[in-house]
Amino acid sequence: MKEQTAYLSQSIDAILAGAGSLLPEFLLAGFFLLLVTIDLFRSRTIKQLLPWLALTGLFSALILQFLGGYTSGGVQFLNLLRSDGLARFSGILFSAAGIFTVLLSLQSKVLEKLKESRGEYYALILMLVLGLNLMAKSINLLMVFLAIELVSIASYILTLTLKQEKRAVEAGLKYVLYGTLSAGVMLYGMSFFYGFTGSLNYTEGTFWQALLQADVLLVTIAAILVFAGFFFKISAAPFHFWVPDVYQGAPMPIVALFSTGPKMAGIIVILRFVAAFSDPVVAAYFDDVLLFLGIAALATLVVGNFTALWQKTPRRLMAYSSVSHAGFLLMALMAFGTNYTTGVLFYLSVLLFMNYGMFLFLQISEENFGVQKLEHFTGLGHKLPYLGVMALLYLLSLTGLPPLAGFTGKLLVFTNVWEAYSAFGKPMLLTLLVAGVLLTGVALFYYIRIPYYLFLKRNLTEEKLVISLSDKLLLAFFAVPLLVLFFKPDLLLHWIERLLAQTL
Amino acid sequence: MRLPKTIKGVALGGALLQLVLAIVLYLNFDGTAAANGQQGYQFVNKLDWISFSLGNLGRFQIEYFVGVDGISISMVLLTAIVGVIGVISSWTIKKNIKGYFLLYLLLLTSVMGCFLALDFFLFYLFFEFMLLPMYFLIGIWGGPKREYAAIKFFIYTLVGSLFILIVMIGLYTSVIDPLATAAQLGMLQTSGINPDTILQVQQALQQNAISGADIVRTFSIPAMMDPANFIPGSLLHVLSGTVLWDLPVRFIAFLLLFAGFAIKVPTVPVHTWLPDAHVEAPTPISVLLAAILLKVGGYGLIRIVYPIFPDAGAYFAVLVGGLGVLSIIYGALCALAMNDLKKLIAYSSVSHMGFVLLGLASLTSEGVNGAIYMMFSHGIISAMLFLVVGVIYDRAHDRMILNFRGLAKRMPAYTTFVVIAFFASLGLPGFSGFIAELLVLVGGFSAPDITGLLPRWLTIVAVIGLLLAAAYYLWALQRMFFGKYWIFPELRAKAVMSDLNAREYLMLVPLAVLALLFGIFPHLLLNKIGMATQGFTEFVLRNGQEQLQMVLSTIVK
User: Do A438 and B51 touch (CB under 8 A)?
Assistant: First the structure.
């Protein structure tokens, strides 16, 4: 009994010692509870306050992580969560994604009309951001699983926000089925790892040393099983089948969140996982895993870009575009031996702005002008040049053309891959590089279809079309960073470098 | 549309200002100063743009680095001249004037930027940025099949520039800026800047004596031209010995870059976007496309591809020259078969740009001078040719050769200009086209003796191209302009076959004068470009032979 008490108090001490580093997460959790509680009141004015409350929570988390300084004296949280510079920067991105989601939701007419579960909706966004933060901080496989599940469950419910729509229900169902399946597979793989190593702390050297002793084939299989779960989150092939349906059925702000938040967090998790491969000894042992990763990246690039060519609705087009970006990110992660983290984080930051901008554009054109298919964009750019030009900026950035930050992001990725190739001469890297560059040409082919309808086709109807000032401001808000980060990428790169230098 | 006059006026003012500045630049340019592509740039402006530390992999820097030498000064002048002509020709545009002139000026900016940039990143930025205004200019203001032509143009050139992108990434991961590296090493504080510092840094680099963290990588094109600036062990280093598909990586890189610029030139197997783009584009945009956009391809070959990979340039001389001759003959044969006057001229462009490749591949001083002269002269003459087509299309809304006969009777002044343009283009002595073709052919014929790069029969075949050019122009002239006046009955209702108006004179007269001026006084241009091409050919030949030996020696082992 006494031993147990001693153990208990020890654990409590350890928890308290490390808790300081989780300040942003506590903040988010606190605001989540606050939102859920306040939602119980029936007063209309209080209901009006809900989004603003969520915004306050996300903003304070953003500022907190921006300022930093909550490191709890260098103590990690129970070997489970590590608050290093990587986690801090990604936390900033996640909070920003949450803020953008709420802003988009405020502009959305569909969500404005939503009578029930408005509080729930905003609370779950907070919950999702919390889960993303935990994903980025996890250094323990079980914690990764928990964090991914937290994100997934929030995502399932958010997909179903518009319950009365048939499409939403279908999307939600598919999402849940795929999600639980991949979660199960991932957990199965993790159990293998635990069996081999007796440890779940996958960022530690001993974990990989123990794996080196185990049977190669089994380790490879286990690794592939674990990656299945990660790939599901970042929507990489062959676990991307949920993407088009969910993008079609979920409310637009949520789609924007899915296209950025979980993808970023998944990439960070994979980044932490594959960090061990930068040691050539380990990498040589895990050759098959690397081959699998390379093929998956290639398949994701090919599937994403080529399937996008045949899409007829903007939402599905963006779904496959999001798959192709997952491919580029996976490719970036293959450049072991180079300093690729900075490039990946830069790409993720750019992705955040261009995806939110693009989805805001889609939301405006869907709700105000009834655009359901690509053809419905016809002539819109002539009627609303401002909207059209903004859309053009986002699309060019998504394609990766100068003078927009999407180009810089791709340039950094390709550079890292080239350097890794010239250092180690792996043919896989060259294949990825060439495929990535050439598929950019394919990407132009489908992205350009939107400006094609916007500007090249003419619509002869004479209706007056307007968009609100707040929409205009938001569009500019998402577009300006794309230009700034092209002309001055070192602003962000230097900052990322500084943050990454901070260990715990 | 509000204030159409003001918008046009602003555009014209901008283009005129650019012209004045270009002329001032041209006159102040010292043509006697030695230059060889790597050194000797004048009016250089260099500012730090992006510089970023990559930890133990060193730093990379992108600079705003512009300047002119004899090669680019001619292109700058050409761009400015054609820019003004294009605005005058755009005066009749009715649809969405603001958007049109906005895109037009953007296009002019990026072409000018291409000719001035000496930093590869900056060059690439302008090179890619040309596509977008062009896509919309063809796609919105073009003819009936404009969407197809616009997308074809966009995809073709984008794929080309992606090839260039791959090599650009490879180059900048391999090349250091010796001066900036010296600064990073702290060598500048002690001794100041002197030529020895650069040599010391290059020696230290080749001996692997500089730690990774101190290396400053660069996009600077002149730095890429010096093999001593390549990091040992990088894939594109002369002695890397890496082989890909049985070719050294440097050769692959050359081929990729060449493919990228060849699409823009365009050379025969990848030329198919050009006729489509020309046929659908409105007249002023055709003028810009033929007169200056195509030149970016040839200019890229001279400025970037050959000096950076002189070894591969020497190795693939027959390929480049052969594609040039193929373009000359195939383009001319296609032109002979065309019924659409604009398509005929588009194919004649393909044919004439083949001379640029041939002259460049010969790597003789005459040949390269001829290539640059050809780009300049073709810029002037093709602008005239497309304007002339525009005139008939404005009046009859049709430009099929067989639908017109005896136009000389109705439109004598117009016919005069058509004759001038056709004869200038087919290389009649006295016009600039003659000088250009003469120089290229002299270069091609002397190449087997001087440089040993091209077989003599290639140039002999190219001469046939001249005959074909005479054939398609004279035949078209005979069919459309001579004989009894007749136009196709269905066109008669709408056609108003009046002679040239003042605006058209304003565009055609200066161009005709320029074509004559540069045909009679070639030294006006050659004085400015001569030293640079002389230096360029010597530089490329010498480095080419040396580096080719080194590249091949590593492969044999």
Answer: no
